[in-house]
Records
---
Amino acid sequence: MSRALSKVKLPYLLLLPGFLFLFTFFILPIINLAQTSTQTPIAGGDTGEYEQTFRFANYIDAFIENREQFARSFIFAICATLLALAIAYPLAYAIAFKAGKFKNILLVLIIAPFFTSFLLRTVAWKQILGEEGFVVPPLRTLGIIGESTTLTSTSFAVVIGMTYNFLPFMTLPLYASLERIDPRTMEASGDLYANGITTFRRVTLPLSMPGVVAGTLLTFIPAAGDYVNAAILGNPNSKMLGNVIESRFFKIVDYPTAAALSFTLMAAILILVTLYIRKAGTEELV
Amino acid sequence: MVDVSSATRGDLRLTRITKTYGDFTAVDDLSLTIPEGSFFALLGPSGCGKTTTLRMIAGLEEPTVGSIHLGATDITTKRPYQRPINTVFQNYALFPHLTIFENIAFGLRRRGIKNVDADVNKVLDLVELPHLAQRKPTQLSGGQQQRIALARAIVNRPALLLLDEPLGALDLKLRRQMQIELKWIQREVGLTFVHVTHDQEEAMTMADTIAVMNEGGIEQMGSPADLYDNPKTAFVANFLGQSNLIKGRIEGTDGDNLVVDLYGQKISMPKSRSHAVDNSIFAGIRPEKFRISLVGTPTRGNVLTGGHIEEVSYIGVSTQYQVAMPWGQELMVFEQNDDGVPPFDKGDQVVISWEPNFTFALRGDEDAEAGTEVAPDDLDEDE
């Protein structure tokens, strides 16, 4: 075998493990899921026994039945994404430009929560927002929330939980793109008669757009499909689509509806993300 | 927002400026006046405080002590965007997300000018790049980016244009060409240019007045010819070109001249060119001012005998000689190759002579090596 030929083959060999893995654990399950989504119960069969009838109306039924959770998933995900952006941008900005020698320590702190379980941290929020936690009593004393108002088991708690859990995914890409900005471009902006706010609007923000787009996508996509936060911090009226899919699969054993909902969610996210990237026009940047 | 057209103009005056960072003093009690309309260069090695000085003028740093006036207006604490001053940054700092046109229009738009097309196109013509208006900065070569950075600054017609090592990133040939162009543009637009550089040749080519900076202060200020012909300190003598500094003593006077003893040989020099404070001096002579002749041939002017050629380097237009003197010092001599005389050979016994008027005298307690350690062309970043 010639050297040149093996050189041509090398990239494919490198791709092979990843491809095999994705084929087995992504492509095959997706095909299986697609098949399941158009099945119907076997007449006279047991619970959980389905046969392929290519009933595409499953999609319409599933959507109409769960349109409320559908809408809620996207509203919660958008709220959590915006909140995370509002918190993460100043944070990333401070780390990138003002932290000096503390830069690395702060970056470690951003990812430190990953060292403990996602589930455990979400349960911890239940304590924090609980009746005996350190948030509710002071707010009651100050009269900001009423005596009968609780924070746990609310939509608010779900959004807060998601914001918290996805904050690092927002912060890190923002930091990466802010850190790449040459501070002299900001000085040049000041030199060219732009005050601080104008400099941010005309120079810093446009130059950090790749980070904003990456961060919002990394937050929005998992948040839209999330069910842990709603399950732990929510109530029956704050269920998201993820919770519906989970209960259809594992409790009601209604595989076709769960599969149809999964595909609908995927499609909806894909469409929204495509529109968003088009609008944000990241390819225009740098 | 600054209305540059009616804003203060006039001379820039720095009064007793000091800038410290913790224990480090970057600029030390510096006073300086830059006349309106001049091409002024701040020249010095890395870390001499020239960039810090420039940044204080731009408003990017605030002086620890002292004041800055533009004409009659105190601008010491004004924010950069409040000053009628624009900067050409060292690495150009063009906005990568904007087109060349929008980069140049940036300052005009921030000042609320609606119709910017005519002004922008005019400066694009001035820097001879009108065809690049719709490109992005990353699509331009270094030399083109440099011109755009200049255009982006001068389109605002500032009272003062600051240039921070503007040619540092360009190769030698392009740098020479841009030096001539910058000088031409400065005459064309008639703005005050303040140019920071570590390249003495660049400063001498372009500036009307040069302030040589060292360790946070100004060593000497004057026209390029003044500084070169009559340096006041060893630092200036060595940093601006090369100098032979020979230890000596003032023995007496002879009319307008001083009689100086250099290791037992008497020379004469004009009194007015001595910057010494007592009798102990360094006599300074530029290498190209020396003449070499073989022992026994006629000489004129000041004469030093007893040397022999130690080293010969032929470099085309001239030949450089190292001449070993009896007191152990090696003197540098540049001879133009224009007289058809064959070069001297290594080992030749020679006499060195020069016109007394070319001699300058520095204080004898100076460090004769000051300003030689830094090879100016090796430095890229400042501070």
Note: Chain B has eight helices and 20 strands.
---
Amino acid sequence: MIPVIVIFVYLAIIAFIGSIAFRQGKDNTEDFFLANRSIGSMVFFLSLFATNMTAFAILGSSGQAYRQGIGIFGMMASSSCLVIPLTIFFIGTRLWALGKKFGHQTQVSFFRDRWECNHIGTVIFALSAAMLVPYMIISIMGGGTVLSEISSQNGHPLIPYTAGCAIVAVVVTLNVFFGGMRGTVWVNIFQTILFVCFGVVAVIAISHALPKTFAEYMSSLANDPKTRALVTRERIPMQTFWSYTLIPLSSIMFPHMAIMCFSARRMSAFKRTVIAYPIAIMITWLPCVFLGVLGAAALGKISDPDGVLLRLLDAYAPVWLAGILGAGIISAVMGSDAHQVLALSTMFTKDIFVHYGGHEKFGERRSVHFARGFIVVVTIIAYLVALALKDKQGIFEIAVRYAFSGFAAMAPVMVAALYWKRSTKWGALAATIFVAFSLIATGFLQGKPAPPPLAVAKASTNNLAAAALSGTATSLATTNAPVAKPPSAAPIAAKPKEDIIWKIGGGADAIKILSRAPNGDVRFLNGYMTVFPMVLGSILCVILFSLATPPPSRATVSKYFDSTIAHE
Amino acid sequence: MKKTLLFLLVALVYVAHQDFWNWRKADPMIFGFVPIGLAYHAGYAIVCGVVMAILVKTAWPEHLETEKTEPPK
């Protein structure tokens, strides 16, 4: 009951902050969508960070660390420590300057103007919206699931899934509806502090209650051949590890991140953000990954690895900490969800409604009303989808994973727009279509029925490790719980087989151009993630199609490149 | 020259992310309980913060802030 009370106190605080933001707001789109481009340095950093962090940073990271070991931190967190600040430094600052100078409020309006073409903007809008919507739906699903699990007593949730989804949807909608960008970023300050502090507090609290020391648990994992892989990176293939360094390119291409960049008051706000960002990632992720691995030693085999943090808290921490965890997770869910809803509303209002004449017809004030109406409608639809497809959550999880690859592959389009005079709308269009096609093809391959498994086998350490290597959250990886029974005695139903779709050569030297890992994930060139060919293909499309088509007009090139913006 | 050095610095840090030499190592445990592979990447995150501070100090695009505003279209 205490966790539920803590969460409701948290939600009440969020609603209160939103109501203050509403009272300070003005009825124009610049204020509603960008808080009048007035976000200060510290608020900008905290909000940008909250925009980018999802519940995965807390629950998912510890669950993955429980399955695959410490390498999760290097693979998913530390790669972002370099790439995301770099994209903010080189892309975010330029977007800010262009927004300030020419009044752009979205990426699409910049692309339209930069390439003198309405259609390119509309195509990019459609692709961005299609990649963002599953993210929004899964945020509501995640919120509902967490609320129902945390409120569960003897297997019966005090807050059922439907009510949990509704609570998250209503709080986010009210916050965004009334507060717009201002309400969203103010709430983000509170949210970021909460989930950044959570991990550190959890490690300290748990360390006091554990029967053994951290050193003893880690030594026991390292000294047991069956669990040693958890304190090394043996379960993560090098190709996957490297591929993940491309995923953070997606960050700045998510519409809500780009829109945030337009909202800063001064460009100096970016300075603190790019320096503090890597440290904030470390403080958020490191304790959760460590606790995930520790859970393998302290708890042994558990049926739900993603719940390892909750189990540790249940067993070794005071009950109020579980409430803080719940609030931390919900805040991570709602922080990014609120920005996604606002970004969709901004894009739809500015890039479609206003662009196609709505503003002239209905005026500035009505445009804000339209944006608010859109927020309500889109959230209701997302909520209904979250209820109707509750059992199909996996589909949305896959869609979100590929959305990251899709946005990462759109980064070359942005770089070309900002830094390459000779880039053309045809280059951008070709890259966008290539990305869309790649996503559809990947989804199709992922959805294909799996090949028949090999004969029933007893698992060896290598078999299990190999299976876990290729995937993320699979039931087989769960079977691979590190402190399970000795592998030689742990029967598994069947060993899933890698599905080779296209290979060159034969035998051990064959190059697997396209394959599917046992968990269904599509892999390229002997194991690289699909983000690699997608980014590469996008770069090639931009370059080749730009060179093959006439350059943009001299006036546009002069507008964007003769000033100082693109120099340096 | 400055640009080249900064580019090399960033490239070096990017390459340093792929610490293949720690792939199968658990020891030494830093502070007695943090496996070397995890400690390395925690340190890597701090190095990234330092690199970004160097970029901000030496290559900040100050000129962008002085751009004149044009009325929105």
Note: The CA atoms of residues 12 and 171 of chain A lie 9 Å apart.
